[in-house]
Design brief:
mainly alpha, 14 helices, 61% helix, globular, cyclin-dependent protein serine/threonine kinase regulator activity, Ctk3, LALA0S17e00518g1_1, Ctk3_C
């Protein structure tokens, strides 16, 4: 597949994210493999090694042309790509990143603040509905790359909105609250990108709090920009699908509280090394992994 064809197909993938991103994967024989073909993650994983720069630009350009409510799908897709590729990110003996690592750190994480700035643009009040999902995504990605101070910074992002307005009390002050913009010298610096994301999230949370406080003081909030009803309906449908999908994993049980340390130590001590069965099981696991869509 040449670069032009890859861009065309990937643009179609981005265009259909509102349909494919939150669809549950069915691995049963009756699915016929159609879901795997429509899986946006599978398409990227199959072709990113040759076209990751084109794909990166496609995501940014496509998101810039979307309504701010629809851009959230691109950011969620972006974060899932990082999650799927993270296990492939490795360093050699000289400390140099492999190709996947360069894609993650130099592009997906390096330009993360550009994507967050599109999802939470300045002077767009309705885009503040994206804030909670953006916070969850940034916290998750930061726990992978460990740039921000997790306890203190995450606490600030999660604290109640009204605590962010200590210096703003009057309606005039709330109306004149400035919008922060992300600025960095190196567009591929993932540490600066993560710091910019954190600063943007705090600023947008402050604006969300100011809007709530202004409504409390005045009883009304004037939003100047027009709202596309179709974009709102799409967003409502996406939120329903995402909420429904989040319920699929509620049956999992945390086992930390029932783990018997003595039982673990006894089993660990009884292990006498690798056996023929262990090697056979490893070969079977390797075969299953290579037959999965991640390695096709």
């Amino acid at each position: 597949m040449d670069a032009f064809e890859a861009r065309l197909q990937f643009l179609q993938v981005i265009k259909n994210l509102h349909k494919t991103l939150n669809v549950s994967k069915d691995s049963s024989p009756l699915s016929g493999g159609s879901q795997q073909q429509n899986d946006p993650l599978a398409f990227y994983l199959r072709h990113y090694e040759h076209h990751y720069e084109d794909f990166q630009q496609c995501m940014l350009d496509s998101a810039a042309k979307m309504d701010s409510l629809d851009r959230l799908n691109v950011l969620i897709y972006w974060s899932r790509l990082v999650s799927m590729l993270w296990s492939r990110c490795m360093r050699d003996v000289d400390g140099q990143l492999n190709n996947t690592g360069k894609v993650i750190y130099g592009h997906l994480l390096g330009q993360l603040d550009d994507m967050v700035a599109l999802v939470l643009p300045e002077n767009d009040w309705k885009a503040l509905t994206n804030l909670s999902v953006c916070v969850d995504i940034i916290i998750y990605l930061n726990r992978l790359c460990e740039v921000l101070d997790q306890p203190s910074d995450e606490t600030l992002l999660k604290e109640p909105l009204n605590q962010l307005l200590n210096d703003y009390h009057t309606s005039q002050q709330l109306l004149e609250l400035p919008w922060d913009q992300a600025i960095k010298k190196d567009r591929h610096d993932y540490k600066q990108a993560m710091a910019n994301c954190y600063r943007l999230l705090v600023d947008r949370a402050r604006h969300a709090a100011s809007m709530q406080e202004l409504y409390r003081l005045e009883g009304i909030c004037t939003v100047t920009e027009a709202v596309n009803s179709n974009a709102v309906l799409h967003r409502m449908e996406n939120d329903r699908e995402r909420h429904k999908k989040s319920k699929e994993h509620l049956w999992f049980t945390e086992r930390n509280f029932i783990l018997d340390v003595r039982e673990f130590d006894a089993l660990w001590g009884s292990c006498k090394g690798m056996t023929r069965n262990d090697f056979s099981n490893l070969r079977e696991l390797k075969k299953i992994a290579h037959n999965s869509y991640m390695y096709n």
